[in-house]
Amino acid sequence: CQGYAKAAQYLLNRLGVECTLVMGTVDTGEGHAWNLVKVDGSYYYVDATWGDASYRLESPEGVEDAYMPDINYDYLCVTTRELLRTHTLGGVVPMPECTAVEANYYVREGALFTSYDREQMKALFDRAASQGKSDVTVKCSDSACFQEILSALIEGQEIFDYLSSESGTIA
Q1: Of 141 and 68, more confident
Q2: What is the DSSP string of 147-167?
Q3: What pTM value is reported for the model?
Q4: CA-to-CA distance for 100 and 80, rounded, in angstroms?
Q5: Are 137 and 111 spatial neighbours (Cβ–Cβ below 8 Å)?
Q6: Which of 1, 72, 83, 93 is spaced 20 to 30 Å from 52 by Cα?
């Protein structure tokens, strides 16, 4: 994880993005490293290690072919509150409180839902199709929103209104 975080720091700094290494632990209790970045004047956390979906993939026996997107965007420009759900700051150097959401991946991509919005969902899938993407990831603001979207897309089978081909997926 420190390699991912140091590589992200190096590359982002080379691109002119302020980025520093942060040390702490994760919910399993093991040591972990991630980054603090400054985007458009606001601070965010980025965990490039957990952005590699295969890093955290632990398939149960017999589920070798389970679908997993190549990239997990859940830790790309997140707030302190979001980060602290799974991470604990090391506490050696005080970190700024990250509260901005404008640079969060899901916000920028229009993929953050507070309720099931058919127009927002259609726009998200249409944009992905126009960019040649074969998968779409959405994020729900809370469990009620998740249940609403799950019910509509899966139980109500509305997912077929948005998928442009048989190879499309949703996470």
Answers
A1: 141
A2: HHHHIIIIIS-GGGGT--STT
A3: 0.81
A4: 9
A5: yes
A6: 93
